[in-house]
Structures are given as C-alpha cells and as structure tokens.
Specification:
This protein is mainly alpha-helical. The protein has a domain of 45 residues. The chain is 81% helix and 0% strand. It has two helices and no strands. α1 runs antiparallel to α2. 4% of the residues are buried.
Length: 68
C-alpha cells in the first residue's frame, strides 16, 4: 500500500476538482446552454484545457511516485 504524501494528496484533490468541472462543463455542452457558436467554442476550449491540466497533474503524480 502506498502512502500518500501531501504532494500526491493535493494532486489527487486537484484532479478530482478538475473532473468535477469537466463534468459541469460537459453537462452545459450537452444541455445546449451555449446559444452562440462563440459560447460553444468557449466551452469546448474549456473542456480541452481542463483535460490538459488533469493529464499534467497525473504526469506529475507519476513522476513523484518514481522519485523524479
């Protein structure tokens, strides 16, 4: 069993919040809340940004576990 350090716990909490925000944004996209193409593009860009940050958090956590 691996012990969570402050760093990995913080990254896990951040990742969970990013997923929550991705879910909210995805729901907004699916519900059709974007009434203009610009709003739609903004939501899609936000989704992409959130995914990128989540991937980076996971990469950092992996590096921490490997002792880098």
């Amino acid at each position: 069993m691996s012990v969570q350090t402050f760093d990995t716990r913080a990254l896990n909490m951040l990742t969970a919040r990013l997923i929550e925000e991705e879910t909210r944004t995805g729901n907004a996209l699916v519900s059709g809340s974007a009434t203009t193409l610009e709003e739609y593009r903004e939501l899609v860009g936000k989704m992409r940004g959130l995914k990128l940050v989540r991937d980076l958090c996971e990469s950092v956590e992996t590096d921490l576990r490997k002792g880098k």
